[in-house]
Amino acid sequence: MSSDYEYSDDDADYYDEEMMDGTQDDLSMDSEDDMDMEFGGDDFKTSPNGKRKMYEVDYESLSQPAVEKLMAEEVEYVCNVCGLDDSAANLLLRHLNWNKERLVEKYMDNPTSLLVAAGISVPEPTAVPSTSRTRSTDNASASRRSSRGASRLLTSIGVSKAKSPVTSPTLSYHTPRSFKPKLNEPFVCPVCFDDSPQIRTLALECEHTFCSECWATYLVAKIRDEGELSVKCMAEGCAMACPDPFIRTLLVPSPRSPPGDPQQEIDHAKAWSHFQELQVRHYVASNKRLKFCPYPGCTNTVSCPSAADKSSLTTVVPTVSCGARGIGDQMTQSQPQQSGLGLAGKEHKFCFGCHIESDHKPVVCGVAKMWLRKCRDDSETANWIKSNTKECSQCQSTIEKNGGCNHMTCKKCKHEFCWVCMGPWSEHGTAWYSCNRYDEKAGVDARDAQSRSRASLERYLHYYNRWANHEQSAKLSLDLYVKTEKKMEDMQITSSLTWIEVQFMKKAVEEAERCRMTLKWTYAMAYYLAKGNEKDLFEDNQRDLEKAVEDLSELLEGPIEPENIPTLRQKVTDKTVYVQKRNEIVLEDTAKGFLEGRWRWNVAVDGFDDPADVVV
Amino acid sequence: MASIAARRLGKELKEIHSEGCPVGINLVKADDFETWWFTIEVMGESEYKGEVYTLQFRFDGQYPISSPAVQFVITDGRQAPIHPHVYSNGHICASILGNEWSPVLSVTAVCVTLQSMLASCKKKERPADNDRYVRHAPDNPKKTQFHYDDDTV
């Protein structure tokens, strides 16, 4: 039905931005600064301001009220530019997925059709579609007749005020008339057939009137069960959308109204707050610069303009945190001084660019994703089988040849065959122990292919084992943390150190865990880095960090002798500082490399130039 | 909630009893407010001339806010009509039973719509994906997300 009002994108081209300039700047300086939908990746390229590290992105954590404020700013902008009221602007923004540039463009082009398509205005009488096939038949039942009555009414009203709703929606909108019951005829709600004179009746501008109880039940069902962002009028085929104040009137009892059914009031209140949350979620989902915190039960949003574009994900690793900690009941919104490794203190850290892992610094999303896919894939197991075994040509059993001559006898089916050519042994005649049936060149190729496959497998395993090892170590850090706490207590008892003075152990454990996460991902990165000086330098940095972390871990795991505690403290503190420095170097240098486009891959990676020549 | 459904269905039933059903539609059984049965027949010239089908309506407590579950009965020797929008298990792909349902519609209005859906059919055939759908179809057709692709039939 709305297809008549669809615009092609070509219509947009002639639109001149200058048209907007004066108004835009005056009216919405703030919202422009915060919310510009069009964004390049430039922010990050400016030299980092004192605090922010090269490998960190600028982001801001927003609570639900803060997001609602941003939404209100957008609504206000549309109100000012188009001369609409709040609820109409809201419906329009929802209709166009909060793309206000497109909204203004479309509105300037043809306000009537846009308002009709968004369900804000009643279509012109001629545009009233014959909504149902049943209308053509004569056998309509009583309830059909009642809805026909409504549509006849609609037509007559449409004529009587044909000029008003479209040209100036602000004026005709919310006129008390449309919320007012019609008194001239006894009213029967077409949904519940209630005809008692006391019932409260409501209608949208389309004048399809129903009782308030049916409206409320309908709204609750649409919001709760179907998660509707824009609830249409109850009448068949009517495209009018319920504006927010209308929904609010029905679901939120006014302070003066007598108390109703408590359970129903709770349901209504829940539906209303769910409706508002749906709007916030829709707004966040429509805005590339915003993302919801993925932690369960968390309602915060993170704004990260520098990672809004997919293309920026080849230059930055947007690790962000919504500011809250903990999961479920233990969640706190503040950043407490004491950060733990346990669930209670777990920071809501996530990657703005992907869902694969909360923090995969220093490697970019695309490469991290490729690596994980490779690790999950069974193809590596298959590779091993391929390079080490063959199948019996008769019973398909997998056979590993671990020595001996080429004359094979399958243990299972007793089939005798040649390992080299896989043909039946009987055809070899007298050429025992050597196979001259195999074409020489093909034989060389086959051997080459097999050894290449074996070498690539070994190479993969080299990186994988180190990657998995660091992951495992990081997982064990929880145990190490508990052990360390115990040690810290011991130290307090056996030495004269105070609680504050033994904190160095905790710091060291946390630092070691952080570095192991970095190290883990450097192996994924190194696997895909093309051979060359850049890779050598990368691996030098990686080696230095790894050595430092292992030294620190050894110190942390070691036994504590009371007399050595001052030396241990000195050593651990020194190592922690050193490890931290090495970690910074790896992260900084990698991030810089991404910005400079210095890294070359040995495979094709999304968003990067194809590798010129693959050197593995 | 349930009271709205009961009141509304009671009123609809009363009207059916007093005014009768539209031509070609007859009430078979409506002993409660959960399940009703109707027979439906296409009057005049059509592909389905002389054929009588049985429709089953199932209502939940949310009726008429939520649509009834409507399907053709295919047990006890009865069959679903062969129609491009009717699956052999009796399920019907019609937008007014799904996303275009309006609380204003009634049981007889649905019957009349389905009657005209049959009447306008030019060629008796099953939906293209009938076998695949019927194999995996849920018991209640309301659980199916139909894709309404053709308004002409």
TrEMBL record, chain A:
Signal peptide: none annotated. Residues 1-41 have a biased composition (Acidic residues). Residues 130-150 have a biased composition (Low complexity). It catalyses: [E2 ubiquitin-conjugating enzyme]-S-ubiquitinyl-L-cysteine + [acceptor protein]-L-lysine = [E2 ubiquitin-conjugating enzyme]-L-cysteine + [acceptor protein]-N(6)-ubiquitinyl-L-lysine. PROSITE patterns: TRIAD, ZF_RING_1, ZF_RING_2. Residues 185-439, 189-233 form the RING-type domain. Its EC number is 2.3.2.31. This is RBR-type E3 ubiquitin transferase. It comes from Agaricus bisporus var. burnettii (strain JB137-S8 / ATCC MYA-4627 / FGSC 10392).
From TrEMBL, chain B:
It comes from the Eukaryota. Residues 129-153 are annotated as: Disordered. SUPFAM superfamilies: UBC-like. Keywords: Ubl conjugation pathway. InterPro entries: Ub_conjugating_enzyme, UBC, UBQ-conjugating_enzyme/RWD. The keyword GTP-binding does not apply. It comes from Agaricus bisporus var. burnettii (strain JB137-S8 / ATCC MYA-4627 / FGSC 10392) (White button mushroom). Residues 4-153 form the UBC core domain. This is UBC core domain-containing protein. PROSITE patterns: UBC_2. The keyword Chaperone does not apply. SMART domains: UBCc.
